Amino acid sequence: MTPRSPTSPGAGLRRVAGLVALAALPTAVLVVFFVVPVAGMVSRGFVVDGPGGPSVDVGGVLEVLGRDRTRRVLWFTVWSAAAGTAVSVLLGLPAAYALHRLEFPGRRLLRAAVIVPFVLPTVVVGVAFRELLGESGPVVRWLGVELDGTATAIVLGLAFFNVSVVVRVVGAAWESLDPRPGEAAAVLGASPVRVLATVTWPQLRPAVVSAATVVFLFCATAFGVVLTLGGLRYSSVETEIYLLTTDLLDLQGAAALSLLQLVAVVALMLLVGRLRPAGDGRVSRVVARPRRPRRGDAAALVLTGLAVLLLAAPVAALVVGSLQGPDGWSLVHYRALTSTGEDAWTGSSAADALVTSLRTSIDATWMSLLLGGLVAVLLSRRSRTRGERRVRRLLDGLFMLPLGVSAVTLGFGFLITLDSDLLDLRDSPLLVPIAQALVALPLVVRTLLPVLAGIDDRQRQAAASLGAGAWRTFLTVDVPVAWRPLLACAGFAFAVSLGEFGATSFLARPDDPTLPVVIYRLLSRPGDETFGTALAASVVLAAVTAAVMLLVERLRVRNLGAW
Questions:
Q1: End-to-end Cα spacing for the chain
Q2: Which residues span the membrane (predicted)?
Q3: Which of 98, 101, 109, 378 has the lowest tally of Cβ within 10 angstroms?
């Protein structure tokens, strides 16, 4: 009797069953700590108690979506996200070209610095732009224009975050383009503009569209920037959910907006997946050699300078403002970081809050690495049957869902669902790290997945043929390739967790807040002294985050190519 083929129906079912069994643990974690809280939050708005018992109130949800304020919030969210995306792309494309295709002094340092704004805490960015654009800021003093509290300030803040996304995504694609077709076209008499339009752009367009779509997604779901810079005048879907939940206790309105946001973001994620260039998931090893700038590169270098100015000016204003005391240059605001003041407004000193943030971020990092690493391993294995491919696609989409749900929704969902007799974590110190780990999870998966998928499966087969078991094969083949990217993932997760504010603003205990929560509480109090302390705390938080990301960038430059 001949043995069954590896692709026979029985073998295919066994492989699918094995994949489902391995995915059971991370899926169960995601269901308990993501699906259940989000579903609980949404159900509180859709299900109402009536004389005949609980019932679904669809009419109430439609009434929420038909409100004039809801329409204004939706329009501002779409408009500001589109404007932020446009500015990010217009500044990011020239910077991607200059930093990835040209060679000049300081290029590596600039490439390292460009990634830092993306992971800076949103509260810090809001404080920095308020200091830059406020009535006593350099923009008012030098240009006579006050932009604090305007839509322009919000758009600039969104672009500040997302220029680096365009630079990284498009720059990596630009590096991998074969320069020979463009050189051949130039030899045949094509001008640089014609070479760009007919040779380079058709190859680069998928990466540009994909980057723009991701940036729009990030802009539409921004929370801290809009909350800090928009004040009471401007509100996005994210900040409106926060307002409806915390101030107005309108759970039905918050649930309706949460569901609308989830549907829109899932649609955008599906669009990004369709726009992703076709391939086998392996990392390209083709990297074009940078060349020295020419006269025709002047415009790209000038626009790159504008992008660097956009990224550097708010940070510089933040540092300078933190060093300004009542009588000139002073460290008085930094000395105030160790004091809680005369009341319990902040809950703890900024120094104690920093310790809490570091401790919480460490816990969130190992949680996200453990869960994300397991998911990346499962998704990166070769699918031999159609059933395996479908299961892996389903898992891939499932573990990307935290990108599409408001952190505010997740945080409040934790409070109203994780209080049962079976699982009551509302007073647990693990609650905040778990929420932050879920926020960082998609970044960990997306970073590790292409690295693991790029490993030639024949190496694993060779190790297995020599008698190595599954664990031995993993340790000898996968780990040597993935351990440095794993360290980079740890840095990413740590930085993201350090600055997370949306879910943490709900879950942090009043007497043990994280540093972003303390900064926001300081900003909520009037007075130059508390604002100065908020500036100093923001500088400290930004410095720690930047140090972590510069270390990550050092790992990336040496080992990960265009990661």
A1: 49
A2: 12-36, 73-97, 109-129, 149-170, 207-231, 251-272, 298-320, 364-382, 394-418, 430-452, 486-508, 531-552
A3: 109
With a pLDDT cut of 90, the percent of the chain lying above it is: 2
For the stretch 10-60, pLDDT in tens is 655 666 666 677 778 888 888 888 888 888 777 776 776 666 666 666 666
Token reading at 284: 């390209």
Residue among 370, 395, 409 at smallest CA distance from 237: 409
Are 160 and 125 contacting, i.e. CB atoms less than 8 angstroms apart?
yes
Look at the domain 19-55+323-563 and name its fold.
Answer: MetI-like fold (1.10.3720)
pTM: 0.77
What is the chain's percent helix, strand, coil content, to nearest 5?
75, 5, 25
Over 481-541, what HEC string results? HHHHHHHHHHHHHHHHHHHCCCCHHHHCECCECCHHHHHHHHHCCCCHHHHHHHHHHHHHH
The reply to whether 68-237+294-322 shares the fold of 19-55+323-563 is yes
1.10.3720.10, 1.10.150.120, 3.90.870.10, 3.90.105.10: CATH of 68-237+294-322: 1.10.3720.10
Average pLDDT over every residue of 411-415? 78
User: Structure tokens of 495?
Assistant: 């930085």
Q: Per-residue pLDDT tens for 280-310? A: 444 444 556 777 777 777 888 888 888 888 8
How crowded is residue 231: how many other Cβ atoms within 10 Å of its Cβ? 14
> What one-letter code names the amino acid at 222?
A
Rounded Cα distance between 235 and 239, Å, is 6
8 Å CB contact between 280 and 91: no
SS3 labels along 226-284:
HHHHHCCCCCCHHHHHHHHHHCCCCHHHHHHHHHHHHHHHHHHHHHHHHHCCCCCCCCC
- Dist CA 562 CA 115 (whole Å): 13
Can you tell me the distance from the alpha carbon of 400 to that of 59, in angstroms, rounded to the nearest whole number? 31
Both structure tokens of 99: 């930093």
State whether the Cα torsion 77-83-89-95 is positive or negative: negative
CA 297, CA 532: separation in Å to the nearest integer? Answer: 42
Q: Which amino acid is at 454?
A: G
Q: Which amino acid is at 117?
A: P
Residue 83: pLDDT above 90? yes
Domain ranges of the chain: 19-55+323-563, 68-237+294-322
Looking at this protein, which amino acid is placed at residue 379? L
Q: Residue-wise over 513-533: b if at least 16 C-beta within 10 A, else e?
A: bbbbbbbbbbbeeeeebbbbb
